[in-house]
Amino acid sequence: MDADGFIQIEELTKVYSSGPVEVVALRDATVSIGRGRFVGVTGTSGSGKSTLMNLLGGLDTPSSGRIRVDGRWISELSKTDLALFRRHTIGMIFQSFNLIPSYSALENVAFPLLFADVPRKERVRRAAELLCAVGLEGRSDHRPSELSGGEQQRVAVARALVNRPTILLADEPTGNLDSRTSRQIVQMLYDLRAEQGLTIVMISHEEALLREFADELVRLQDGTVLSQETLRGRP
Q1: How far is CA 5 from CA 34, 35, 145, 199, in A?
Q2: N or C: less crowded end of the chain, CB within 10 Å?
Q3: How far apart are CA 137 and CA 13, in angstroms?
Q4: With bands split at pLDDT 50, 70 and 90, how would you rate the model's confidence at 184?
Q5: Which of 148, 140, 150, 145 shows the shortest CA–CA distance to 109?
Q6: How far apart are CA 229 and CA 60, in angstroms?
Q7: How far is CA 77 from CA 11, 39, 56, 68, 69, in A?
Q8: From CA 55, how far away is CA 66, in angstroms rounded?
Q9: Selection from 8, 15, 115 nearest residue 60 by Cα
């Protein structure tokens, strides 16, 4: 394992119990991710992709093993510190856009800043800046029902970035989009990675799409890491 990895996942295991039945969703997963890398994660349904993403994002805790991010063992943080880690370090986007229907695009993007006690003027400024960055500067007043699927996902990306995270986790972000729009969204993430200084981990069933943009490809099967393949070296 690369000792200098920005993200270190060491022998990570997650077991879910339902009465007497135990399901091993992830088994002894070990992955190293460098700062500023775009890493794709692929595998069939039930391979452990979303479990890995939830553990990395601090949404769940491992049964065993450890996760280190930028020198901090997040798998050992208290609930309070873990919440702060999620707020300040992690941005997440999903297959479902999860936008608030009654809010405009601008209000949706600015919404997470309410919990960070950011003043209203600054919330509006940051949200408008990010909508511009994702190509929606002319759609800030539109509600989700007035936007296409691709536009809604762009709003979701902007919302994920509004707290200025260093890591962006994307769980099947193109799952509800056509192939042309899917490529546009991943191209946008690729470009934002350099502009915002992000490390990106993206789950997708579309291996060809990941191979086009990602620096590395992690393949999972039955909760086990089969391989971590380097597609591109550092620039």
Answers
A1: 5, 7, 41, 11
A2: C
A3: 43
A4: very high
A5: 140
A6: 26
A7: 18, 25, 13, 11, 11
A8: 10
A9: 15
Any idea where the domains of the chain sit in the sequence? 7-230
| Fold of the domain built from segment(s) 7-230 | Rossmann fold (3.40.50)
What whole-number distance in Å separates Cα of residue 183 and Cα of residue 211? 12
Q: Are 170 and 93 in contact (CB under 8 A)?
A: yes
**∠ CA 162-166-169, rounded to 5°:** 80
CA–CA distance, 94 with 78 (Å, rounded to integer): 25
This prediction has a pTM of 0.91
Residue from 164, 75, 169, 70 nearest 116 by CA: 164
Instruction: Encode pLDDT of 75-94 as tens digits.
Output: 888 889 988 898 889 999 98
Spatial CB neighbours of 2, under 8 Å, sequence gap ≥ 6: 32, 34
Element spanning 65, H or E? strand 64-69
**b/e 5-37 (16+ beta carbons within 10 angstroms → b):** bbbbbbebbbeeeeeeeeebbbbebebbbeebb
d(Cα 115, Cα 129) in Å, to the nearest integer? 19
Q: Which residue has the tokens 């065993």?
A: 64
Tokens representing 221?
Answer: 């099967």
Q: Tell me which residue of 120, 140, 119 sits closest to 129, measured CA to CA.
A: 140
